[in-house]
Amino acid sequence: MRIKICAEPFEPWHEVQAYQQSAISMAGKFGATSIFIGTMRDFNDGDDIQGMTLEHYPGMTEKQLEKIVAEAMQQWPVLDALIVHRVGDILPNEPIVLVAVWTSHRGDAFDASRYIMEALKSRAPFWKKELLASQTERWLLKNTDGYL
Amino acid sequence: MSIKVRYFASLKESVGRSEQCLEITGLLTVADVWRVANPDKTMPDNTLAAVNMDYVALTDAVEDGDEVAFFPPVTGG
C-alpha cells in the first residue's frame, strides 16, 4: 500500500506504472487493476471555475486513508493499492486524486476501488476552496453522493 | 491539563486562528473544549471533530496532551 500527498501536479499513469513495477510481490498474481482518476473541472454549480486550493490535515489525512485501504483489504482480496491526492493550488484539467487497486479478479478490483473512493470522499480530511472566474472565492460545503 | 486545539478550512477562517493551546482543569468533553476555546461563538451544526487524528463524537472525553481538531464536512477527491 502507498499513500502519497502531492503539493505539485502529478501524472497518474506514470504513478500507476511506477508503483506496479516496484510492487514485485504481486507480479504474476494480479489479473485486474482498477484505476480511478478524479480531475478538476472548469465549472461547478453553474459557475465557471478558474482554480482551486485544496487544504488538508497533515497526518490525519494519511491515517484515515490507511484505515480506509485496510478496511477494503478486509472486505476484498486486495493484493495492493495506491492512493495519490493533490493539495495546494490546482488548475482545471489537473488530476486531483488517483485510486488504483490490484486484485486477482475484476469484481473485487471494481468493488474495492469504489469503496476506497467513496470512503475517501466522506472521511479523508481535505477541503476545497474554489476561485470563480468572477474572482470571488467559496468553500465547497459538501461532496455529492457518488451513488446518485 | 494541556490540550492543543486546531481548526481547518472555513472554520479556521471564522474563528480567526489555526491552532491554540489550552491549559484547563477538570474532565472535559470535545464539546467542552470548543466552549472553553470559543466562549463567544456557537459551534456550527455540521462541525466534525477529531482527537489525535481520529474522528470522535462531541460527547467523547479528552485527556491531557490530546490534539483536538474541529473542521467542516470534508470535500476531497
Quick structural overview:
The complex is a heterodimer of chains A (148) and B (77). Chain A is α+β, with helices and mostly antiparallel strands and 148 residues long.
What would you say this structure looks like, in words?
The complex is a heterodimer of chains A (148) and B (77). By secondary structure, chain A is α+β, with helices and mostly antiparallel strands. Chain A has a single domain (2-139), classed as Molybdopterin biosynthesis MoaE subunit (Aldehyde Oxidoreductase, domain 3), CATH 3.90.1170.40. Helices cover 30% and strands 38% of the residues of chain A. In chain A, helix 2 packs antiparallel against helix 3. The longest helix of chain A is centred in the last third of the chain and has 18 residues, at 106-123. The mean pLDDT of chain A is 97. Chain B has a five-stranded mixed sheet. Chain B has one domain: Roll (Ubiquitin-like (UB roll)), CATH 3.10.20. In chain B, a hairpin with a 2-residue loop joins strand 4 and strand 5 (54-55). The chains are: A alpha+beta (148), B alpha+beta (77). Chains A and B meet through strand 4, helix 2, helix 3 and strand 8 of A and strand 5 of B.
